[in-house]
Design goal:
Rossmann fold; 234 residues; SIR2/SIRT2 'Small Domain'; alpha/beta; 9 strands; binds 2'-O-acetyl adenosine-5-diphosphoribose; six-stranded parallel β-sheet; 2 domains; globular; 19% strand; 9 helices
C-alpha cells in the first residue's frame, strides 16, 4: 500500500505562476485594503467592491496564469504516494495541474454561491469571464434571481473544511507544507495535527519559525518540490 502524503499549500506555491501572494512586499494586502475586500463586514458594507476585486483576480488567473513545476511535481508524487492536497489558495492551479484530491480550505475563486441558499454553489464558466455578464456585474444573481457571493471564506467567517483537513493531516505519513506564512488560523494550526512519527517538510524561501522536528527546505516552490521528489523517491 502506498504511504499517505498530505500537502498543505499556500500562496507561495502559485507565486512562480504569476499569482500575487498576500503578505510578501508588494503582495495583495499591500495593494488592497484587506478588511474591505476580504472580510464579512467589508462584503456587507460594499458588495460591488468585493465583486470587482475577485472578478479581477479571476480574469488574471484564467487569462495568464498556468500551473508551474511545483504543482506538476505534486502530481508526479502520486506515482509513489497516496497524495491529498489541502490548499489555502482560491486558485485552481492544483486541479489544472492534474492533482486528484484537492481540498480548498478558503474556498474557490471560480465558484459563487447563493446568499439565500448557501448549498447552491455555481461553477463559473470561463467563457463568461471577459464580458460584462455574470462575474463582472456587481449585483450578480443566480438563475433563481437570488444574489450570489464569492465562494470564499472571508475573515470573520468559519472555515467549514478545517475538520476534514485536520483529519487528513492526522492520517499523514508525510506532511509537506509549501509557500505559506503560517499566520492565518486555523490553517496555520494544521501542522499541529501531524502525528509524532509523521515526517514533516516545509518549503518556503522565507520560512516562518517552526518546531525543530520540521525539515525546512528554504527554497522557492519549484526548486523545493524538485528536491523533495529526489529525497522521497531515491
Ligand atoms: P502569504 O502571502 O501570507 O504568504 C506567502 C508565503 O509564500 C510566504 O511565506 C512567502 O515566503 C512564500 N513564498 C513567496 N514566494 C514563494 C515561492 N516562489 N515559492 C514558495 N514560497 C514562496 O500567503 P498564505 O500563507 O497562503 O486567505 O496566506 C494565507 C491566507 O491569507 C490566504 O489563503 C488568504 C489570505 O488572507 C483568504 O483570502 C481567505
Amino acid at each position: 500500500m502506498k504511504k499517505k502524503l498530505v500537502v498543505s499549500s499556500g500562496a507561495g506555491i502559485s507565486a512562480e505562476s504569476g499569482m500575487m501572494t498576500y503578505r510578501d512586499a508588494g503582495g495583495l494586502w499591500d495593494t488592497y485594503p484587506v478588511m474591505e475586500v476580504a472580510s464579512a463586514e467589508g462584503f456587507a458594507a460594499n458588495p460591488p467592491l468585493i465583486h470587482e476585486f475577485y472578478s479581477n483576480m479571476r480574469k488574471k488567473m484564467t487569462a495568464n496564469i498556468k500551473p508551474n513545476a511545483a504543482h506538476l511535481g505534486l502530481v508526479e508524487l502520486e506515482k509513489y504516494f497516496d497524495v491529498n492536497i489541502i490548499t489555502q489558495n482560491v486558485d485552481d492551479l492544483h486541479e489544472r495541474a492534474g492533482s486528484s484530491h484537492v481540498l480548498h480550505l478558503h474556498g474557490e475563486l471560480m465558484k459563487m454561491r447563493s446568499m439565500k441558499h448557501p448549498e447552491r454553489i455555481y461553477q463559473l464558466p470561463c467563457d463568461q469571464l471577459t464580458d460584462k455578464g455574470l462575474v463582472t456585474t456587481v449585483d450578480t444573481r443566480d438563475p433563481y434571481g437570488d444574489p450570489v457571493r464569492p465562494h470564499i471564506v472571508f475573515f470573520g467567517e468559519s472555515v467549514p473544511e478545517f475538520e476534514p483537513a485536520a483529519a487528513l493531516v492526522q492520517q499523514a505519513d508525510i506532511l509537506v507544507v509549501i509557500g505559506t506564512s503560517l499566520v492565518v488560523y486555523p490553517a496555520a494550526a494544521l501542522i499541529q495535527y501531524a502525528r509524532r512519527e509523521t515526517e514533516v517538510y516545509y518549503i518556503d524561501p522565507n520560512p516562518a519559525s517552526v518546531p525543530d522536528w520540521v525539515h525546512v527546505i528554504p527554497k522557492k516552490a519549484t526548486e523545493g518540490v524538485a528536491e523533495l521528489i529526489t529525497l522521497l523517491t531515491k
